[in-house]
Amino acid sequence: MIVFLNGQFVPEEQALVSVFDRGFLYGDGLFETLRVYNGKPFRWAQHVERLRRGAEFLGIRTPYLPSELLEHAEELIKRNRLAEALLRVSLSRGIGIRGYAPKGANSPTLVLMLHPAPALDAAAPFRWRVISSSFRVPEGEKLALFKTCNKLPQILARAEAQAHGSDEALLLNTSGQMAEGASSNIFWIEDATVCTTPIESGILAGVTREIVLELCASLAIRTEQKPATLETLRSGSGLFLTLSSLEVVEVVTLNEIPMARSPIVQRLYGAYRETVRRETA
Question: Are 95 and 221 members of one domain?
Fold first, then answer.
């Protein structure tokens, strides 16, 4: 696999980052992961805009304009001949003076890399078994708005899910309200209304989450963003998750309890697939 590292296309075994890089030492950086369909990065502008805002918030200089970064991403896709892939963009503050203070770290590290994407089958969409995690995310946390390289609560929550034989873990926030999945956003259905947790609950507002809200508006499906408890999800008429790699994933069990199934989930899955087809054909 070829990797783009700081302006150079290099084989993955030569794509080396210093052990003194602050991304490695402190998680001082950001990343974005998006899906590539038919050789085209899907919703590139939204992902890169969040990266830009995150870099501005953290005070990390972005070494390329969005248009330049897109050119490099497209070239990387061509060189790897990987038309269906997951594209990860990683940006760290780079090497600086030892210690937490970022002074002197003026040469950021930027990496683009590709991974084979999970196959999607409209006739057999992913359906997940999920659990509620014992780990929490802070309510109202400003850093949650960006994909920082500090994801230990989500990592440990996913480890809990794996140990349980489940596919995903749902995290509550410090107020005891549902927040997000370890790598996903949460949606549930109440009386034909598609509901999701609000940004203030401490979530990363995913790009796929935004697309689903767009689709609901186009399909005249009511939406609401509001706090929820575990019982709220259990009592709904449907539960699903959204993430860039797998799009819309229906939840079939929550803490081993079977969940109600709603035709709205399949309708949104079909609409999402059609959006991808239209925008990347």
Answer: no
